[in-house]
Amino acid sequence: MAEATFQKTLSLTNAFRCLECGKCTAVCPISRYNGTYSPRRIVGRLISENPANVALDPNVWTCLTCGLCNARCPSDVKYSAMTKVLRREAFRLHNDPSCSHGGALQAMMRIHATSNQPQDRMGWVTGDLKIAEKGEWGYFVGCLPYFDALFSDLESNTLAIAKSVVKVLNVLGIEPVVMKDERCCGHDLLWGGDIENFKLLAERNVKMIRATGVKKVLTACPECYRTLAVDYPEVVGPLGFQMVYITELLADVSAQLEKKLGEIKKTVSFQDPCRLGRHMGIYDSPRRMINLIPGVQFNEMTKRGPGAICCGTSAWQNCDATSKRIQTDRLLGAYNVGAEMLVTSCPKCYVHFKCALQGESIPEDKKVEVKDLIVLLAEALNSK
Amino acid sequence: MAAETKEFKPKILVFACNWCSYAGADNAGVNRMQYPPDIRVIRTMCSGRVNPGHILEAFRMGADGVLWSGCHFGDCHYIFGNYEAEKNYKKLVAMLKLLGVDERRFRLEWVSAAEGNKWAALIKEFVADIKAAGPSPHKMNGSRMSQPQPLPIVE
Amino acid sequence: MMDAGRHPLIDVFTLSEVIGLEGRPGNYQATVRTAPRYVDLDLCTGCGQCSDACPIAVPNEFDIGLGTRKAIYSPFPQAVPNAYTLDFDNCLNDVILACERCRKACDINAIKYDDYPKEFTIPVGSVIVATGTGVYTPYQKGDYGYGIYPNVMTGLEYERMLNASGPTNGKIIRPSDGRTPKKVAFIQCIGARCALEGGEYCSRFCCLNSAKCALLTKDHEPDVDEVSIHYIDMRAFGKGYDEFYRRTQAEPWIKYVRGKPSKILEDPETRNLILYTEDQATGKPQKRDADLVILASAGMPNREVTTQLAKILGIETDEYGFFVSRQSSTQALEATRDGIYLCGCSRGPEDIPDSVAQASGAAALAAKHLADHRIERIKEDIPQVDTSGPPRIGVFVCNCGINIAGVLDVKKLAEQAAKLPNVVWVQSDLFTCSDQAQRVIQERIVEHKLNRIIAAACTPRTHEPIFRETIRLVGLNPYLFEMVNIRDQCSWVHAHEPEAAMERATDQIRMAVARSARLEPLEAKELKVNPSAVVIGGGLAGMRAATDLALQGFPVTLIEKTERLGGRSRELNVTFPEEYDAETLFNEAYERLKQSGARVLTGTEVIGVDGFVGGFTVKTDTNGDVKAGAIIMAIGSDIYNPVGEYGYGMTKGVITNMQLEAQLKQGEVELDGESVKTAAFVQCVGSRDPETNPGCSRYCCATTVKQALALRKRGINVIVFYRDMRTFSHHAEESYREARRAGVVFVRYNDDRKPEIIGENKVTGIRAYTEAIDDIVEADVDLVVLAVGLSPYKEAYAKLKEIMKVPTGPDGFFMERHPKLGPVETNTEGIFVCGCAQGPKDLTDSVAQASGAAGKAATLLANETVLLDPTTCAVSFDLCRDCGTCVAICDFHAPERVAIGGGLFAAKINEALCKGCGTCAAMCPTGAIKARHFTDNQISSMMRVFLLGSEA
Q: Can you name the CATH fold of A255-383?
């Protein structure tokens, strides 16, 4: 990377302002378990060494980019943003992350970016779900059908999320436009340094959404939400439509929804997805949705809201023992506040927690159920 | 001549397990059974060694077809490795269907060490299928960017 | 075969026969005569150019004349040694005008027309006779038209036709017209169970062989409408055989027809065959037609040959020419001269699993005489080539005579390879595998500091070990060798498309270069072997295994749970077929055990096992820990408890065959002091029943015959109710006939209509429907003997399964590693199984298998160390999520969940148990598992080179 470009990046991310206080390392969920990882040191090396050396360090891929350090930094160093840029350089230099599942998901995303073959991804839209060709609202499904195929053995049913979204919208009288050839949003490629393919995805998706003529696009995935709302405009300019996270819409019409919800007798807790919370500032609407369901007892975990710990794995890369420990702690955190169920509103959090429930790390009697918020809502609708 | 150069030469990747399928391919050789040369073989010890990433990466890199071959059930040198391969195969079939990959392009087949003729027939059939299916529409355009492009920083 | 051919301690003499044997056990001198091969074994590379040049084609013996071969030929593709042989009788050089085509075709001058027979003497400690058996040729009695009607063939000929690489490439055709048959008929017992032709004995392997061929028929030719099997009794006695038999019965197109045709006639026009047989349901003669008839020919030795060999070896043969055992129940593998052992079909027809187990047994017995002559591994001191620097790859491209060069431009391949990254040396040779070329490779490694070697030649499956050894000898790690198969999988199979074949060869070499650069040196770990063994279970099988091992000089501990050795044999009266006194038999076995020096712990139970191959610690409840390099499980089996069946336990006069045996042991057979007039046996009680024991218990039919004869001697009338008389074991068929002659009545009953007991509190009669006369047979009896099956000891098996990590099969018995290739080994290396623990069997087979297990254990214990193949998998603790996937899927129990400190757990792979399949690496969600020598990086580099055109 050109030296000047990088200096500019460091300057834009406030790296030069670092006071070496180490609050970032102290708060970093990775550093807590992996003593060899220090965000402060990376910043220190970046401003004092040749950036290419740092880009070749495997630790470039360790960060979860969850943004907890950013939130605590007294100098406003944007560490996760800096990581994003650093990874582009790492990727170019063939310093590759260690990809989960043999890189199957990254391969899938890159095929999305370049393949001209129409997908066959609408199998989940069963007769009871009403979707439209045209309309005001679009629904950006994300990679749910793919997760459903690849993680069939985790007893995770990610497509239930998509079905629940349409079900809930139908109850509210909305028949969303669902695109039969929507592509991966590119979030993971962006955070994996593969800008070229990310751009292709952004261009394809935006073009496709614009062609439908929808005014507002809903999503139930915080990563899609952030990527489309924040990262797309940077590469394709103004979107021409508005991005709305599902709970934000539902919170607006909660009075209408409340009447239709049946009782669910469960004690639950909530996992704040990092992209939804710290990245996009949405903390309140998911909580309002949980509290809307009759019979649900909502117990908050100690680390929550802006201080929540993320789900431990990002962008299907560098998933490891530390990830598992973070996930285990989150699941036990929910158990410790008396929850029988940990509700999350991110499909990735959902898959990661499902995976963490495998094996013997958590004793059987302490394993809590994991469910997506929108699926829980749909179940409440059904129980009425 | 010009027509010949335009002829579609498919890129077909084959994973063959050491004990049955690779041996079956050798057996075809010993018996001089002719089959089309459009395949490239990667030998693994067991069909179970191949993971979903390998297969999807192959399609990403532009493979026109991928054939995955192991021992018949009950014959696996490692007892149940081929059952694990089949588990992954089922996931992959679902993934590839979503991606719109022509189902002819990906197969899991069992060929024993004695089945040289089955191997030859299988390759003939697979190559013919791939030729009928035509060039893969999934080829990626280039690999990595040559120059990084500065992006505005956003939080 | 390849293993034997390649083993450093095995010399294989082909085309050779033993013509003299002098001396005594431990010190024999065997004289061997080798017939001329006319091809130099040391030079021949098996390329086949000579055969291509040969103008003479003669019928191929291996394909039983269905195909052809040349006068200079390799008998079959996997032949060892992999060299050609000249059949001088058919060679043109015999006549005055020399042909010499083959000699001219041979690039290395391996053909010697002046070869001559050689005789030599080798010192040997013992001799194993494994001469197998011939097959009865049904020419001798022409009832079925074999040799007259083209569409009548033998089972063996049919097998060749079913073989994918056989003369018809697996197509089933009628020899008369090449048409696919619609109706195929198998006729069983050709030359077996017959006083008129062949022998009276049961040939043992044919029933299942026909069932298998029947099932395969439809696989090969879906258009076949019907396959019928004409049989007398279906003898599906082996492990899993009855389940297989039931599977074939369920196929609507497979018809089992009881009875044997009297004759077969041919319709001269259609060449279809008419089988004259009886419809057993009506008792009327019937004609059945078939367009192909398969005669299931019995195993039968060439008596002239075997008696001649017997004379040379100083041992005996029986009337058929089978070699005679010293005593068939416990010394079945010993010939009648000390130091000479028998196995497989040389002593009578056997199926593959029993043959292979016996072979290991004979090896164990033979090794007794060799115990003082163990060969120690020679220590080598080779300085290692430093491989830490950047890859320096040498590529050697083989012409293989014209096998490769005839299709591919070898020179061009080498030139192209020279331009590839990291390649610093290329060359092409006429035969890269020749000694000369191998030496050149070694020189180039030194000269050009090569640290990776690639041979583009034939298949790694045969030649990789040779090249690995070559580079190892100059200090280059053998795992830095890579092979490209441009012959078997390129020039041979793309002969008509040389350009496209070139493209393929080019790509495969480029892929290999990419992989080669990423290969890592691997060190084979050495595990010390504790040269001692533990045998669990003190029945006759366990005693035998312990004795055989101890006699070879290995310290052995025999652990028996009860206070008494001998197991089930102590309940027997006499053995079958010799009627040898069981008590004497036990005493002899016990005496041998004592003399062998084995340590015996009775009243001791195994409560745990730690460690792995070469170094187990066996924990016991009363005698502390026992260290051992190998473990043999010989815990026998339970007897099926028939309570509630046939009034057993409620009706007086209903006893089991075991109870009868106890009475026979005491002398008189009585019921409450009163003599018995008529006894009835009911077979298959707790056997061949999917509800209880799915399989055949193997011992009961012969035992019933033995007991029935004993009762007849006491003047008691006997009726036997049976389903199929499975008197397949040595001399059992002959005894069965004797029982019939002695007036024992045999009544066949159907699975779905079992015999009924008559009498309220005391049995007074028995009745059963029999298809044979389509009526109910009723008889007054005062004793009913239930021939009960063998079933696993539920608790003991469950416990041992847990301790040993050895799985049990669907029948509940311990699973062998492979029914044919590893009948006494288990999935866990160093743990062996024998006797009824592996599945029900009779005394002869149990004891023979025990010797087999001892033989396999000795093979392990004779080495000071075992070298572990380093191509295993390893877990990175940092990446491991402790999800348990690898632990759950590995059938070898290599991954284990271990504590790694801080209250954390991870999977750890035990290299001693890992077989290197790499499945766990593929199933691991995070990539924490690395499959050595087949890493993701190595695999994806090959994919990138092929698909993207570069390694990037």
A: Rossmann fold (3.40.50)
